[in-house]
Amino acid sequence: MPRCATKRDTVAVMAIIDQSADPNRFLSQRNGCFTYKRRVPVIVGTRDSRAPIIRIALGTRNIIEARAKRDAYERADRELWMSLCGGGEHSAAVAHHIAATSRARALGFTYRHLTSILSEESGPAILERLRALQDAKPGSPEETAILGGVARPQVSLGEAFEFYVNKIAASELTGKSPEQRKRWYDTKKRAVTAFEEVCGQKNIGEITRDDALRFYNWWLVRIAPDPESGLKPTRVANSGNKDIGNLRVLFDRYLKHMGIRDLQNPFEKLNFTEKKKRRRRLPFSTEWITNRLFATSALTKLNAEARAIFLIVAGTGARPSEIANLPPECIILDHPVPHIKVEPREDPDDPREVKTESSIRDIPLVGVALAAMRKFPGGFPKYRDKGSTLSATLNKYLRENGLLPSKKHSVYSLRHSFEDRAKEAKLDDEMRQLLMGHALGRPLYGDGGSLEWKRDGMLKMALPFDSSIV
Q: What percent of the chain has pLDDT over 90?
């Protein structure tokens, strides 16, 4: 496939083929019937056999119907011209296939390669395609689309995954920080790697239900082995469901993007039943926090930033990553009610998402949390966008210093403890959910209550502490 000479040329094509605001763009009328008429961009030149002018009769006198058909042809032409300027063999093949499927839809057909047309379609359906050829020029994009002249690209599962990451899901990643992007990528890449280890490397369009079942059974042995085998479960159902679910989404979104509609998702309706268990992390008792974790010598060997984050989590119930990633402008200490703001960072050079929309909240600072936050009014650069490092540091310290009551406790137990103290202080459900960033289960009206109201509630459950531990 030919390619454009320079990046500058590609930019020029994008400018030429971009949609204008004119609702009647590329429409002309002759004897009352509408025609799709537009000039082929000079940079594409003779690579589009219809140059210099495209004229396609739309077969309608209705402006609304004409605009709809125009949109389909316009989109197909845009994809075709970009495919003619493809930057590499694989990307060009993918783009060319997308262009062909888009043009087939514009003409009212499902795109199939010629071999599939002959083996899968009925005689009347094939005859309908042949009739449509009467209005198509030999060698034109319309002829190619109708007859299925572009073979489906042979794309491996790994290549499809990278295309999914860089093209299909790209807009979803723009608000994530580097750490969040890496975690998102690694989780989904793990599923691809595991599948290829079990089933070998395959083209995505050649993955069968048998392959998917083979992968399912590989997970089954790890989740629920045959009792007679003597093996013990090594993984939980949630892990298997994540891998299979990620492959299901990859398969579905990639093929839809490619316009391939004749393949059934092989991972459809494959999942493991997850048993409901009590929460995985137990809360610290208030006595354990005040007598062991807040003992004057308990946290002295922990570095200052990690220690402050730990104390703020204990006092606010916030997630450790929420505290570690506070920018200076979200730490408000010179307010009648000192507080922190948990919200997404929308700086394109330094973005970060929050876990859920309900996580966006203002949290008053009282007691030990206020004292620790005053030590770091500019935030915590050591652990900024390093949530995994922070969690590992804190849990290792607690474990090595005998500060965990059991293996079911971790630094996240502080968050569970906060909710228990809030219940014991008789804070109502809505205040607890607002403070912890949980969904209310109903539309939120107003601004979520005043800071003074939240502060007064938190004062009822503030932890006693010695200032020397901060």
A: 52
Q: What's the whole-number average pLDDT of the chain? A: 85
323 residue type, one letter: I
The total of other beta-carbon atoms located within 10 Å of residue 376's CB is 19
Q: What is the distance between the alpha carbons of residues 180 and 33, in angstroms, rounded to a whole number? A: 53
Q: Are 289 and 415 in contact (CB under 8 A)?
A: no
Strand 361-364 relative to strand 339-342, pairing: antiparallel
Q: What span, in angstroms and rounded, lies between the C-alpha atoms of 379 and 372?
A: 11
Higher pLDDT, 147 or 379: 379
Would the pLDDT of 1 be above 60? no
Lowest mean pLDDT among 63-67, 223-227, 275-279, 350-354: 275-279
Residue 90 CB partners (closer than 8 Å, separation 6+):
153, 155, 159
445 contact partners, CB below 8 Å, separation of at least 6: none
User: Alpha-carbon distance 56 to 36, whole Å?
Assistant: 5
